[in-house]
Amino acid sequence: MIASDQSGLYTDAGTNPAKGYRSYSARKEPCTLRIFSRGHPLRSGIRLQTLRYQITASGVQMDLVNLFEESGGIAFDGQELHFPEMEAANVIYYFATSVPIRAIEMLQREIVRTDSFINLRILPTVTTRKTGLAIQQVGSTVDFDQIYQSIFALYDLIYPVSAHISPFHEEAMVSAIPILKQLMHPDNWSSPTYMPSTRELSADQYALFMRWADQTTAGVKKTD
């Protein structure tokens, strides 16, 4: 049995894999491989094949990767895993002693049968549609259109029912700033109330939202 307590991972594109991943909370932790034989941790190493299925902006790819190159291709129980994460993607890593898999349908069946996989979500460095600039390059003043296009447009498209709970327009968002700041705060990561529920909120998206929220709140107070 090949498993990990951190089978669902989140990180930002371009970050150092050695610093760990978000899994159970906003605090990063290492991803540890567990290998069992007849219910007991495997004391010796084993040669594992790793199949990577990844979806990126440029398309879909399925290939074999060697995550155990530093240990001579041998995997050990308790070994810390580091995944290459330069590009934004949704990636599944499937582990097996042999991988005769050539189609996604076969991979899906194997995942259900063995549960020997890790899902890594690499969140992108987002550019705003309005300016074409990376969020870090956006000027000090942030308007709602930048917030919508950079963060909420995706959820408005994919999860339209969310608009019935928190409408994706400026007036509703401004009035909801206090609760949104609580729900989107990293300390709320492990709570079912975290927003967005898919946890696909990158560090720069959160920073941009907080800049807009603080500026908007300050502006409302001055108007009052």
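The above is record 1. Record 2 follows with the same two-line structure.
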Amino acid sequence: MIMARVAFTAGLAIASSHSAHAAVWTNAAQGSVRYGYDDNTRMSVQTSPTVNYASTEFTDELSLQTESLSWTLDPRVVLMRYDHDSELNRTETYVTSSLLHQSDTGQSSLQFNWTQDTTLTSEFGSTSLAGVNKRHQASALTMSHGQQWTERFSTQSMLYATANHYMKAQNTGLVNYNYGRAQLDLQYSLTRHSQLSLDFSIGKLQVPNQPEYGKVNQSATLTYTRTFAERWSAKLSAGPSQVKSDFSKESGTVYEFNISRKAEISSLQLKLTRDITPTGQGTLSRRQQLSLTAYRDLTERINLSLTGSAIQSDTLLLSRNLNFYGVRYNDININLGWRWTPTVTLSITAGHADQRQQNVDQLAKRNYASLNLFWSGLTHTLH
């Protein structure tokens, strides 16, 4: 909550100092209602009863725009209620506040994120501890600055800090943790359509009251991006990475391959990444993820989208008294939507997910489907 107050106070102070420069306030809201079924919400390897659920979601966006300043506040609330299993009922809250200042040769940004959800949301693809259904709360603060030094050369710096807390999680394997990361990018434009950058990153994981969990990860990557054939773009990034503690270290490689296509009635993105990320077990994990996203308008009002991901997460630098193993998580879903009016959309979603823990020779399977009603409000200017 301290980071929340700092970000909010800074946002209001800067916004107030620029309010005299033709400030424009806008507001836009969105909402949805959903009814569906899930045959294994907890991703349990044991037999799990099928449950029906109803959920509603509300999102609002309040923004301030001046000649050089942009400030937004985006709260989102999700309520989910299940039949036959009230322990699954949950209310999730997400708040994002961002501040962007633009100058002739650069831009600076400050973003604060606050999340209150449960492990049924936060742990999928990260650990095998989704089924314990404990409350999870996270705060994150990101500060970045980009500077254009010459026509071709620019730099980007970033500082990121997050604090994660799990309520009543004793004897579950979940622990509270803090993580911070600093990054510096040196970017050079080769042509109008291609760019080369050298990126340096260092991060540190800390678990309160358990200093033996502390770990540092660092990496250096070379990245090449290119836009070609008008609608296509690609990114290729790779470099060495190292994770170390007071007792040991482990070296490896991080990378990203991303190719996408955007057209008037369709879009396609294929992405393959390997990175180092903290988990709710108070460890750093090497995460490899393959994701595919496809969208197409079938008619003026009907659209079809497909989303799939495969995640392999392996815990790094395990000590003898810690028996945390890697997780394999796959999820694929298809959505058929019908735009009823310019602001109201009906859709049907169906999907399948499975998860396997390395030391358990059992596969948790999950099938789900839902009928959804989305409402998107028009943007209103506030006077």
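The mean pLDDT is 88.
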